[in-house]
Amino acid sequence: MKERDDPRFAVDRLWLTFKNPDAEQARWADFAVEIQSYARLGIVLLLGLYSAFVLNDLFVLRDELPWMLALRFGFVVPCLVAALVASYSPRAAPWLRAHIQEYLLGLGIVVCAGMLAMGWVLAPGATAQQLWVAGLVYLVTLMGVYGFSRLRFGYAVGLGLATTVLALLLLRRAPPQPGIGLVLATFGMVMNLAGAWMTRTLELLGRREFAQRQLLAEARARSDSLLRNALPVEVAARLRAADGDRVVIADRHDAVTVVLADIVDFTPLCERLPAEAIAALLDSMYSPFDALCAAHGVEKIKTLGDAWLAASGVPRARPDHAIAAARLALEMRAVAEQIGPALRIGIHTGPAVAGVIGRTRFAYDLWGDAVTGAAAMERGSRPGGIRVSAATAAALHGAFVLVEDEDGVWLMGERADETPTVTAPRARPQPVTEAPRKVAPPPPGS
Fold first, then answer.
1. Cα 377 from Cα 260, distance rounded (Å)
2. I want to staple 18 with a disulfide (CB 3.0 to 4.6 A). Which of 24, 184, 282, 406 is the partner?
3. How many angstroms separate the CA atoms of 409 and 404, rounded?
4. Cβ(328)–Cβ(266) under 8 Å?
């Protein structure tokens, strides 16, 4: 979307402001940050110029010298120093962000008022040569008001016209010099007209550039959000750092705990229920699983049909990867019990390779022993059961109640201090009745 198509950045052509108050406020807050270093440099240069002209005063002026020194070091220089100090003050920072244009206007008034006051002192005894020099200083001041002050259109025009009127009135105090008034008035009006057009153009361009940057930042934020939803934060950062270059992102992890779950009798359920009901069921179950992953610091990898895969220990290694995965599995089972369909869950700990695949639709995936082991645990699990491998049981370090029988080791819950880690083998509990899975016969000739 272009900035001119976004109603937030519609500009009032008369007042040259965004019609949206929030956009207007954000514009000047952004401008305050942008202009800060520039304003400080300008103040330092003005201080240097006003101080340097003292040498001229000392060698040229006599009766007017006390007044000139008083104006330079009693008014202009203290005001500029105060403005410079305020730009570094944390207390003044909020006001400057909200009123940066008034701050710049104040600087402009101080500079122009100082110049006009000095002209008032010098005018009665000025020679023709001094008047021409004063006229040049006046024109340079107008150039600064319109070209370098970065004042908004209304402020710049008001200050420029006021300076022009007062400068022409000062000529009435000077000895009559034919032609000087007409020349200065003509050049002053030309400078004001040209400056007003330039300031208006710069104001519109500045607002357009601000709107474009805002839209670009929003687009980048949306892109980053999509990347973060599809990829882990660290992996998304590596992908952004590549800046469009083709890069292979893959990492080997020595110890990862994988949780694999699927819904019992999901295929018959799909045959009975409408598509919308199936999608709603999966969303009602897997959306809480995603939230549980975020709570436990476990990375959700993907869903495939009714299967749901997550891994603990990727992309960042963590010593408690198995414990986090076990807690996640227990809470997943509790969610499934509240919703209805039973889950079969398998957990295995082992090495794995994690990386990004795809070029148009990125996917963070996992391969290796940890995944195949978890798949084997899930296939051998019971409805409502959480089967863990021997590697996972060892990695849990006695933190959970594990029940071992002839079918494997089962995760029952977190261990109380007096509860043994693994109970003795016992008879297999009666599972929920489930139709046996059909295995397709091998193809002929195999």
1. 8
2. 24
3. 4
4. no
- pTM for the structure as a whole: 0.62
Same domain, 208 and 325: no
Spatial neighbors of 439 by CB under 8 A, at least 6 apart, are none
Residue 69: burial class (beta carbons within 10 Å; 0-12, 13-18, 19+): middle
Q: Reduced to 3 states, what is the DSSP secondary structure of residue 439? A: coil
- Distance in angstroms (rounded) separating the CA atoms of residues 123 and 115: 12
Terminal CA-CA length for the chain: 59
Q: Average pLDDT by consecutive 10-residue portion of the chain (446 residues)?
A: 73 88 91 92 92 86 89 94 94 92 94 93 88 89 89 93 92 86 89 93 92 91 79 81 74 95 90 90 90 94 90 93 96 91 94 85 88 95 95 93 91 71 43 38 43
User: Which residue spans within 94-221 are E strands per DSSP?
Assistant: none
Question: Is omega for the bond preceding 315 within 30 degrees of 0, making it cis?
Answer: yes
346 alpha carbon, distance to own chain's centre: 39
Contacts of 303-307 with CB under 8 Å at 24 or more apart are 305/262, 305/266, 306/262, 306/263, 306/266, 306/282, 307/260, 307/261, 307/262, 307/378
Is residue 235 included in any domain, yes or no?
no
- Supply 237's token pair: 């950062």
Measured CA to CA, the distance from residue 292 to residue 300 in angstroms comes to 10
**Dist CA 119 CA 434 (whole Å):** 101
Q: How many CB atoms lie within 10 A of CB 239?
A: 18
Residues 37 and 125 in one domain: yes
Q: Give the residue among 384, 429, 376 at the shortest CA–CA distance from 406.
A: 429
Residue 247 makes CB contacts below 8 A (sequence gap 6+) with 238, 239
The pLDDT score that the predictor gives to residue 426 is 40
Dig out the tokens for 267 from the structure. Answer: 């295929």
Residues 267 and 397 in one domain: yes
Two structure tokens written together for 48: 């240097």
Give the separation between CA 58 and CA 62, rounded to whole angstroms: 8
CA distance 332 to 289: 6
Query: What is the structure's pLDDT at 180?
Result: 85
Residue 357 sits in which domain range? 245-426
| Crossing angle (nearest 10°) for helices 153-170 and 180-230 | 160
d(CA 269, CA 243): 45
pLDDT at 248 (0 to 100):
83
Number of domains in the chain: 2
Amino acid at 292: L
Task: Please check whether residues 54 and 90 belong to one and the same domain.
Answer: yes
